[in-house]
């Protein structure tokens, strides 16, 4: 049958990702002509012949190299499934990646990726603060496997981190750099290109230091880490990519050679997402740009309102960075918009923050972010309750801080809700 659907190009011109989110990687003729990719709710797939089954397994277990146009045959849903494969193809478009892997959660993506590339005796460098689950994995689980984990504050120049590693005699043990930028909940930025350059300086021919970026806060619309030298991009797809607060999933993207390796670990650890989650994410991707654009624009209005409010002491919002702030240059280089996450401090402490949170009517009081509904939470006692109190203050997470995730409601309504809640403080 003739290929009618675009393969990513129209008359030789590449189509934009949002134009491909309804069609790319899916062939209706393989599914009774269904315009939408059905849910392939199946655990196993029938081989046409024993020879075909043998060929599929040779590829799945890396017993021989894949031919140039040889597809990965369908075997068993822990290895691959059409919903995940179509989704992975579509996800590569936003980050301009060669390959993608979808996982059962953001934490499954992060832990499986680190377990793929890190071995006992290795050193892992990571920015701070990082997401609580990532922080726990780095500080409590990896050390049990003999991995040295060293954190650096977002904003630290890589040369300073390099000197510290050399003084500790660990520079030749570095295997992996994990960056989360912007950092949660302060929106502090880490210079991706500068840390990728550090990874390159400390790489040897037989041991390449990999750089991975958790791009959950701004990606895939407003930041593409692979363009700035990162090797891998990680997501909690639970947040903006899923976008409706109704699923848990994760993604890793990068070069095919790295993703093939990660997928072997995903297959054996069993950390892949199920077909229903894959199907929900395919639906979510169709509106990803619309949602993230509306959220980004509303956040600008909300941040302006907060910055001008007398009861608000300080607003952490990427759109308000001063031009002489060292973070401003990083923002200009690696981000294309400020996104939909804002945190701010009230005058006062926890009591004032709680009074405001309890008075909100349209914003829901819940952790997580990136969904269609706006959310508000208290980092010091909720998402970052586990961080050492002294460290929490050093990181700028004060008891008076409130973090909000802007949804797709009308910004006037969001501002009205914040105004009436601030009134009660
Ligand atoms: C939520 C989140 C994670 C963890 O993702 P899950 O889908 O909850 O496992 C990792 N990193 C960041 C930045 C997050 O916000």
Automatic annotation (TrEMBL):
Pfam families with a match to the protein in the record: Cys_Met_Meta_PP
Molecular function in Gene Ontology: homocysteine desulfhydrase activity; methionine gamma-lyase activity; pyridoxal phosphate binding
Q: Does the keyword Metal-binding apply?
A: no
**Which PROSITE patterns does this chain map to?**
CYS_MET_METAB_PP (PS00868)
Question: What are the protein's UniProt keywords?
Answer: Lyase, Pyridoxal phosphate
Gene Ontology CC entries for this record: cytoplasm
Q: PTM N6-(pyridoxal phosphate)lysine: at which residues?
A: 239
Cofactor(s) for this protein? pyridoxal 5'-phosphate
Q: Which reaction does it catalyse?
A: L-homocysteine + H2O = 2-oxobutanoate + hydrogen sulfide + NH4(+) + H(+); L-methionine + H2O = methanethiol + 2-oxobutanoate + NH4(+)
Which Gene Ontology biological process is one annotated for this entry?
transsulfuration
**Could you tell me the EC number(s) of this protein?**
4.4.1.2
Q: Which domain of life is it from?
A: Bacteria
NCBIfam families (UniProt xref): PRK07049.1
What family is this? Belongs to the trans-sulfuration enzymes family.
Question: What is this protein called in UniProt?
Answer: homocysteine desulfhydrase
**What organism is listed for this UniProt entry?**
Candidatus Viridilinea mediisalina
């Amino acid at each position: 049958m003739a290929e009618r659907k675009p393969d990513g190009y129209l008359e030789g011109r590449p189509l934009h990702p949002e134009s491909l989110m309804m069609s790319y990687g899916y062939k209706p003729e393989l599914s009774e002509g269904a315009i939408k990719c059905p849910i392939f709710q199946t655990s196993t797939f029938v081989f046409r012949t024993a020879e075909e089954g043998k060929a599929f397994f040779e590829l799945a277990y890396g017993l021989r190299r894949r031919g140039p146009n040889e597809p990965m045959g369908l075997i068993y849903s822990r290895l691959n499934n059409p919903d995940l494969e179509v989704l992975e193809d579509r996800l590569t478009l936003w980050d301009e990646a060669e390959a993608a892997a979808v996982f059962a959660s953001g934490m499954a993506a992060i832990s499986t990726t680190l377990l793929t590339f890190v071995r006992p005796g290795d050193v892992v460098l990571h920015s701070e603060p990082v997401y609580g689950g990532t922080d726990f994995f780095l500080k409590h689980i990896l050390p049990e496997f003999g991995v040295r984990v060293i954190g650096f504050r977002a904003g630290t120049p890589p040369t300073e981190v390099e000197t510290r590693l050399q003084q500790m005699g660990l520079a030749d043990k570095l295997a992996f750099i994990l960056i989360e930028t912007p950092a949660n909940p302060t929106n502090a930025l880490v210079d991706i290109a500068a840390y990728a350059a550090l990874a390159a300086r400390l790489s040897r021919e037989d041991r390449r230091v990999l750089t991975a970026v958790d791009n959950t806060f701004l990606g895939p619309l407003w930041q593409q880490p692979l363009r700035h030298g990162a090797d891998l991009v990680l997501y909690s797809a639970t947040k903006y990519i899923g976008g409706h607060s109704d699923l848990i999933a994760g993604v890793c993207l990068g070069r095919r050679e790295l993703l093939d390796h990660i997928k072997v670990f995903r297959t054996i650890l069993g950390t892949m997402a199920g077909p229903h989650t894959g199907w929900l994410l395919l639906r979510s991707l169709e509106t990803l740009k619309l949602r993230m654009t509306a959220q980004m624009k509303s956040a600008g209005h909300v941040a302006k309102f907060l910055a001008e409010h007398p009861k608000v002491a300080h607003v952490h919002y990427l759109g308000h960075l001063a031009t002489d702030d060292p973070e401003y240059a990083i923002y200009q280089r690696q981000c294309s918009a400020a996104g939909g996450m804002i945190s701010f401090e009230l005058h006062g402490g926890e009591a004032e923050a709680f009074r405001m949170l309890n008075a909100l009517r349209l914003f829901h009081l819940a952790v997580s972010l990136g969904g269609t509904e706006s959310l508000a939470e208290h980092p010091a006692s909720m998402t970052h309750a586990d961080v050492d109190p002294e460290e929490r203050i050093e990181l700028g997470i004060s008891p008076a801080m409130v973090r909000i995730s802007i949804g797709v409601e009308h910004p006037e309504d969001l501002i009205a809700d914040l105004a009436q809640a601030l009134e009660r403080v």
